[in-house]
Amino acid sequence: MASENAEKLDLGFNTASDIKPKKEWMNLFLRALSFFATASATLIMALNKQTKTLVVATIGTTPLTITLTAKFLHTPAFIFFVIVNGIVSLYNLVVIAVDTLGPQYDYKGLRLGLTTILDVMAVALAASGDGAATFMAEIGRNGNSHAKWEKICDKFHEYCNRSAVALATSFLGIILLIIVTVMSITKLFKLNRI
Predict the structure, then answer these.
(1) What pLDDT band is residue 122 in, cutting at 50, 70 and 90?
(2) Residue 183 CB-half CA count within 13 A
(3) Which of 5, 50, 124, 161 is 20 to 30 Å from 13 at the Cα level?
(4) Is the dihedral of CA 31, 117, 94, 21 positive or negative?
């Protein structure tokens, strides 16, 4: 009877070696892809800048011009987007390092549960940054006639196109991180940790 109770107690504290290696590599591969997607989105948006000279008036035959620069720093939502994607990229990099180097230091499976909770928080953080940046990108592309906000994408095509690429890669990173999170949650259910 005592040995049965000990076996039941051990079932709740399975070690990391009970997890199938194929799924661990798939999880690690998807996390690496998520890292590359969010890091790419961070770099694309952080380096996004376009300068354009526009004619504002003509005096006689001489055009009067003004030089304008569109940068991600001009929009707080894009700044938030860069910071959030940088944080999620760094988080993915740390988890990749811990997953490859630290399984022998896992205390009774605590790493998997903690990683799953932090994955959910990373998804929420990245989604909030992407939502804010998507809203501002839509305003930049179409403007808002009710608020009298002019669109800028008709003047800064490359800037808007690079912003769209950054948003798309960030959304891809979020989707991959959601898949990794679902895989981690199903592992927790299989290991009877919840």
Answers:
(1) very high
(2) 18
(3) 124
(4) negative
